[in-house]
Amino acid sequence: MTTETSVMRSEIGEQPAALRRTLEALLPQTAEVAALAGKTRQVLFVARGSSDNAAVYGSYLLQAHSGRLATLASPSIATVYGAEVDLSGVLAVAISQSGRTEEIVDTMNWAARCGARTISVTNGDDSPLARGADVALLTRAGDELAVPATKTYTAQLAALAVLALGLGADLDEAELRAVPDAIEETLAAPTDALDEIVARLAGVSGAVVSGRGMAFSTALETALKLKEACYLHAMGLSYADLLHGPLAVVDAQTPALLVAANSGPTLPGTVALAERVRAADAPVYAIGGGSALAKSSDLAVDVPDLPEWLAPISLIVPAQLITERLARAKGFDPDAPRSLNKVTQTS
């Protein structure tokens, strides 16, 4: 594997600072979020790509801790079908790294016309998404040059954690403020297990990435990164969905990469899945899950202890490192995957 440093790797290393800036800017806005959302009952997330994976985290977080129903929008209902939907009592949260993806901007504006209050989460401070929302949560990731999202993605997760606090979630702000330190610890940790996972993934063409609950977003984002930067046929699945049939695709040449917080209600099920996969003579690699998941896996990357509601912000970092190293090991440029642009326009 080449030792050349990519822009993607540099931007992975910038995440602790980006998160500190983002939290410092956004935590004072919790009262503004609360005032806007006071007359709403449920949340509708509008996003695509990595931002959609961030929205999955937001959906689980809000439903588990704020008592609000949260769902993911189908933007084509607005942009293709032009349907009119009663969105009174809805808080529409539009997420876009650039804030310039026309489909997301148009869908947020459509939601407002249908009666929703709107919040944008974007790194584009002078973008149409930021200007058009009732409240803009502007992340402070700085310019992101590599096409695969890293620091903008974790900044979005931090913004959604702030959103949860603003919506009345009974969660500890001090725990959120500790996340940048946890990611610094992850970046400084030994890489032996991570390097071995990369070496083994270099010899396969596909993988299944699985998690559940809060960690499901990490599974989806990890699979996306492996697809877009390493051209690996990676499927991101909830372990509940995996057990309903697709488990049959896991074999000696299609390993399972499992992600989990070090504690929480979904950890026992993740451990049971690891044991079942190993019983089928398929490789199991783990990110997080503590000693329980490590014992049931062939290789495991440890992560710092964070409460389950914040673990996805940390869990994705080893997956980003694996993606960057695997891309280079396979002779690909992780900064500029083929057929991708930094801003993707869809209709």
From TrEMBL:
Gene3D superfamilies this protein is in?
Glucose-6-phosphate isomerase like protein, domain 1 (3.40.50.10490)
Source taxon at top rank = Bacteria
Repeat as UniProt keyword: yes
- Residue ranges of every copy of the SIS domain listed in the record: 33-174, 197-337
Pfam hit, one: SIS
- Keyword tags: Repeat
Give the protein name, as stated in the record.
Glutamine--fructose-6-phosphate transaminase
Question: Which segments of the protein form a coiled coil according to its record?
Answer: none
Q: Which GO terms describe its molecular function?
A: carbohydrate derivative binding
A biological process term (GO) from this entry: carbohydrate derivative metabolic process
Metal-binding listed as a keyword:
no
